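Margin note from the TA: students keep mixing up input and output lines. Inputs are the sequences; the output is the structure of the whole complex. Example:
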Amino acid sequence: QKEVEQDPGPLSVPEGAIVSLNCTYSNSAFQYFMWYRQYSRKGPELLMYTYSSGNKEDGRFTAQVDKSSKYISLFIRDSQPSDSATYLCAMKTSYDKVIFGPGTSLSVIP
Amino acid sequence: GAGVSQSPRYKVAKRGQDVALRCDPISGHVSLFWYQQALGQGPEFLTYFQNEAQLDKSGLPSDRFFAERPEGSVSTLKIQRTQKEDSAVYLCASSFRDRAHEQFFGPGTRLTVL
């Protein structure tokens, strides 16, 4: 079992839909939870991070962490074609080594 | 200022050749990370520097892989005697000290070994 699991998709939604992306993990020592967006042939770009449990909102993006279930989510409201990309969840303990999920490919259809 | 830069962007090597991949981190970023990303997968940790000190090299797949950051700025990832399975995108990222949760990535070097 990998430390971080993520449904690879592909996920296809119509423009304007609410998108839910999820990851599960096995290491209870993870403290920081990050979401990255990666366009084709580009490096990952940090969207947001959360420390410990709870929600965090940034514009159309909301990150949720449920440490009791070892489950994190990223919600995208009013999705746009420009949101079409691969979304990577990532996690770390107090140590600096970051573990990434395999990524979910998202297509937002106009 | 400029982001993380990597060179070359694309590299084709014949099996058995040595390659060197360069990373220029964001100015002031003490921490530097190397990752390997296979097609359709997330980045896999290779190694990590804080200034010139290599603090973790547990992800390097074999002793053919070697990384250095001699002056605490530019880093080079060297792969000796390349094999086909080394074909991947090699990503470099940097961050401020103790801010590994806020890493900034370069565009990557796509290595193809024939």
